[in-house]
Amino acid sequence: MCEEFGCLPSAAVREDPALALDVMALRSYARAKAAVDRASSDEELSQLPQAMVNKVFAVQAELLERRRRDHDS
């Protein structure tokens, strides 16, 4: 949060607790996505936090499905 807001985390939480938590979740997702993109093997993927890896794959699957539906329309 410090990087995103340029302030202490406690100040960000006081200002807007929901936004602060959303930013933390989005930054966590971004780190997981970058790690998944860098992984060159299933073994490397297995070393990553699986909850976030699963979230990355779920988002990718949803995006692919949307593209297929849009293309078929």
Describe the structure.
The structure is a single chain. It is built from five helices and no strands. With 73 residues, it is mostly helical. The chain has one domain (2-72). It is flat. The model has no long low-confidence stretch (mean pLDDT 89).
Features:
73 residues; mainly alpha; 84% helix; flat
Output the number of helix runs: 5
The poorly predicted ranges are: none
- Main sheet makeup: none
**Number of DSSP E strands:** 0
Q: Can you lay out the helices and strands and say which pair or pack?
A:
Blueprint: H1 2-5, H2 9-15, H3 17-38, H4 42-46, H5 50-72
Helix pairs in contact: 2-3, 3-5
Structure described in brief:
This protein is mainly alpha-helical. It has helices spanning 2-5, 9-15, 17-38, 42-46, 50-72. The chain is flat, with a radius of gyration of 16 Å.
